[in-house]
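Re: the 220-residue chain
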Amino acid sequence: MAHETPPVAALATLNRTGVTLGNTRVLSDITFSVAPGEVVGVVGANGSGKTTLLRLIASLIAPDRGDGTVLGARLGTSEVFTIRRRIGLISHIPTTIPELTLEENLLHAVRLAGHETAKVADSLRAVGLEGSSDRKASDSSFGMKRRTEVARLLITKPSILLLDEAISGLDSDAHALIDALVDRTVGSGGAVIVVSHDPLQMEKASTVFGLAVGALTEMT
């Protein structure tokens, strides 16, 4: 008798999950999963809840309805503290500290994630910032700050990569860095979730959902 291949466990799963911020229901009844090696896209207009969805999967906010797991940890419980270092998030606005240099920002982020800092110089070089590492983030362009975030993820090697309008406003070289990061993540058995208002940014996604009125619908 032939042996059946066991199903691959999802890296993130949401089951009828909802999120309310203040008095506003942002996400309602979200059911969704992403498997190892998969790129999932979510398209929605500004204000549709895309960023909230990624923050939920990153365990930065808790659901108030339904349930979900990320890397085996139940959302809304203390279990998430053990898996956050394995999640990489690039927000639509770079999350650098203005008064620190780009190198200092990278050192700070890598230490917070519990990783060694020995590869910081090599990582900055890999994203083309070796000549600008001593520039303060407040004096750096959007693209330079975005490259610093990519350098962080080259070191931390997340199991789940979350991209929030990550290539908007970037030149072709920086766009290629994001593409390479996506390829490396799925190639090592991780998963990627890409959200954007632009369907053209879904080129690497095997499955694309539309997000509107707090609900997901798979697109054909």
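The chain has five helices and ten strands.
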